[in-house]
Sequence to fold (958 residues):
Amino acid sequence: MNGSRPRTVSVTLDDRARVPFAIIGVLLLLSSVTVVGVLESRNTPQADVDPMLAIDRTEPLVQSELREAVLRATDEAARAPLSTTADTPVGHAIDDPSESEFERYLELLIYIEAEKSLPTAGEKIRGDVETTVELEPVDWNDRESIETAIDRIDLDVGDGTLEATLDSVSIHLEGPNTQLRQEREITVTVGTTLFELRERTQEFEEQLETGFMEADGYEGFSRTLATRLYALTWAKTYYDRLDGDPSDRAFENITPNDHTEVLANDAVFAVQEDAFGEGAADPYEDRVMSGAAACLAIDLGDDIVETDLEDLETLCESEYLFGDADGDLEDPPTVQELLLWLLEDHVEGKQELEVHAHPFAEAAFAETTAFGMSDMESEFNETLAETERFDDEYLDVHYQDELGNTEEVDVFNNILSNIERVSDGAERREELTDSRSNIAHANIETDENTIQHGSLPRADYTEGPTGSENHSYKGSRHHVVSSGGADVTISERGDSSSSLERDLADIDIEFQNTVQERAKWVGHENASNETVWSDETRVEYTASFTVSGSFATDSNVDRSKDIETALEEGGAAGPKTANNFVDAPDKAIEQLFGAKSENRIESRIESQSRSILSENDFEEAIDYETSGEIDLESDDIDDWLEDELAATHLTVVTQVEPLEVDLFEMIEGESPIYEFESRVEQLEDELVYEGVDGEYENAPDMTRVELRQRYFDNLYAWIETMGEIHDDSNDAAGSMVDDLFEGPNGVLEESVGFTQDVIADSEHVLDGGSNRKLAKADDSSLKEDVYITVDGAPTYLQLEPVDREEVPAVRPEGVGPVNPENTTHAPLASKYENEVGFPGAPVIPWPKFFFLQLDAWQVEVEGEYARFKTRTTSGDGSSTDSTTYVRENKDVYLEAEANIEVEAGSVEAIEFKNSVPVVAFVPSPKVLTRGSPGIGDIGKSENKTETWNGVGPNLKGE
Fold:
């Protein structure tokens, strides 16, 4: 058979079902050729891009760029922390009373950085498909456009973190067949110490401005400076007073400005540490303070400072600090050591001061009785001279007529106000009269019960008159036909009770009226008006009152005790037969009822008889009050009361043991004067109620107790007042000095050797290599082991102006660090005024209370840093992250576009102005005749530096 054979291969299988390898190879070859042919015949492939997936892929890139933008913005905000907005569109946009200006400023910085960097977050996906990122541009001349940009950033400040949300980021996807634009809200969180640095810097600035009277404890610059000023002031004044040459005082000026400079800088460093953390004070503190404190020690003089002044002179000249001196120098004394030398060598243990209760008791007696000094002397001098406790010399000084310089006390704070209040003997109260009045005063009240017996009559008008169909009822009224008169009975209780709260009198009232009701009907259709009369009825009214009184309610006596004779004359106490409270019932009745006689009350009721129909009418006719107060006539027993109180007073001054007080105790810790309180208390109950056996004899007996109690109350008040006066100065001098002795913030805390090491290795110190403990910032979830350092320029705020050559940070006002112009800068100014002047004023301008002499100084300080930086660092050394917060006087411009800056506002330098009222007092010549009497500068004076009211940038240098 002829024909074409099909292109097939016959495969014959053997009976073992095996395929030859050659056949398998042929089949594989044919299959490969087929696959290749199919692939080569396909069209070019096209990528299938999901638009949303592409945008989602771009979003993390946007987040990354936004995160970097936020970090750059926070760094910029730290370098230029805007504090005042400018009169520009940008400044107006930032200035929003309802929000934090600083946060709005930061939001704008973030938007500026984001606008620059977010467009770089776009990417090509495949082929011609790409994404782009856009932000709405800002019109820098349009306030609303700038505000919109600010409002698109939302900040959430956490502990060391900042969450920033940027609203409406436009991500655009574009390809050959696809175009898509989507608005996304992007949120990032970064770790930053910007807000903590800002908060601590603001706290530092606030503490610098916190005034003495505004602060609690030792908070704030004024109180911190006060601890140092008080310590040094008291040391100087006590040295001169106790050990100085009467003809040549060691300190003619107690608070010179150069000493204030040293103490003020030490206080500033302490406030720095308080605001920024332990060990955060400027690392150059030791270098600058060592020489300054050494100069202070030298200025105090070798008669006082028991150390080698030659070494200190070298240190003062700063040669030793910079390694120019040869040999070993002794460590300089700390401020605490200087003060201890003064106090321990010239005060403590040198002389015991015996303080008697006598002056306090006499002050209380004079205040209670209004005795003058001459009265006191004539009353008690001779008697006291006969006792073993008081000699003639003491009494002569005690009763001297006047003290010098009392008119010089200028009351300028609460301390001196208290002193003036105590010393103002001309305004002592008439407490004898007050005591009698308090006892002769009573609160009164009445307990009443009024009853109407019987009902008012009723006219029978239910059916009306004859022909009532032609009448209409118009109403009825009761009328008093006649009155039977009022009967009032007053019964006084007398001394039926011994209580100070008792019933005084009973009043019973009876009254009757004859009453008739009249009902009126009006006639119609020629019918006449008709009146229907009820029968006449007698109505009786009764009232009973009990008038009670509570005596001596405003007094200080024990009112739980009874009184034997009160509403009658008599009683054993007093110079004569006492009237007591005999007029209490009459006065109480007259006060409550407007009359004390039965007839007058009866007449008043009867005059209103026609209006008495109800129980209320009856009460109104009686016309009484339910409570009131009365002042009774007191007995004229002033002379007797004075004699009785004088006996009590003599017992107090001779039996209360005096205090043995070391002079050093008088200037530290709580005033020992308070110890008199417990000693007086031991006698109080016994003397106040002397002669009262269970109950008071009569009203004079109560008055005597009242006066004694007032005397003791005044005695306690004098003890308290003198103790408070002592404490008001000692808390700011003695106890503050005591705290200063512990050395937490001393001027010269460390030895010269350590200081030399610090200065020689300043770089190591700045890196935290010294023994100073670095202050830590708060850790956050993104930052750990963050440390704070402080760098002020100048480090030491001196009274003399500095220029840029001395302090590179000095700049003209309003310019930044890149401005090369030179100028002068006044870092510190000081002023003081000696309010009293030598020899000081008596603490109490009352000779018998002349324990101490007082003087006062008002010390004022103002300062400004040229630049103040705080820096946080974190990391392990190989990688360090830092933020620097800078406060200096400069304008703030924002780089809105390339080569275009817009004014936002300005940054203010750290500046402050504060004052410290310094009060000090020394033992008077009355108790110690040694040393140089008096306290204060030689003559009243005011002294201020040339830079006063002119701190900060000054005139440009030549």
In short: The radius of gyration is 49 Å. Residues 389 and 654 are 7 Å apart (CA to CA). Residues 699-730 form the longest helix (32 residues).
